[in-house]
Amino acid sequence: MSEPSAIRRAIENGVAYLESAQLPSGEIPIEISPTPEMSVDCVREPVVFPAALAARALSITPSAARVRSRALDFLLREMEPDGLWRHPSSEKPGHYYTPLDVDDTSIASAALAAAGRRFPNNRALLLANRERSGLFRTWIVRWWRHPLMTYRFFKYVAKLRDVDAVVNANVVIYLGICE
């Protein structure tokens, strides 16, 4: 088999796998486990990021158009007002207790923009969510709908003013598309 044929076959196999793994909602599922080997107690973790990343990455693979379209539809359904997203999908218990986040918002927005899908202009909200140094914070905390749960989130799970290199890279990707 020639290299181009092998590559084509690998792409076909990858797309077929994605089609079989993708949930009816359009979500691209991932699993978590208490062990690094993922050898026991694996459970599905309903989150937005894998569908957003896949939808963006698959924009250059015409044979994955169906998977991509379903992932984009999923992103639109998961979108919060003002074109923002949370990391967990609405299927996860406690979804509304997790603050909106810049990472999922940036990758979901980049995927939708690359596909020509319409969504609210969220760039001003992202630009307003920066440290004085200009770096983007991970979490968007605009209101305190569930103050006790939000307090617990930032006490036990994350830092309120968290700045992350990959989050900043993903914002740069999205804002670069918008230029």
Structural write-up:
The protein is about 45% helix and about 5% strand. By secondary structure, the protein is mainly α. It has one domain (about 5-179). The strands form two sheets. It has a two-stranded antiparallel sheet with strand order 1-2. A two-stranded antiparallel ribbon has the order 3-4. The radius of gyration is 18 Å and the shape is globular. The model has no long low-confidence stretch (mean pLDDT about 90).
Q: What keyword list fits this structure?
A:
mainly alpha, 7 helices, 4 strands
SSE map:
Elements: H1 3-21, E1 31-32, E2 43-44, H2 49-57, H3 65-78, E3 100-101, H4 102-114, H5 123-127, E4 139-140, H6 147-157, H7 165-178
Antiparallel strand pairs: 1-2, 3-4
Silhouette:
globular
Overall mean confidence score, pLDDT = 91
Quaternary: single chain
Structural class of the secondary structure composition? mainly alpha
Strand count, sense and barrel status of the largest sheet are: 2 strands, antiparallel
- Spatial arrangement of strands, main beta sheet: 1-2
What's the total count of β strands? 4
Low-confidence runs (pLDDT<50, min 5 residues)? Answer: none
Number of domains: 1
Strand content: under 5%
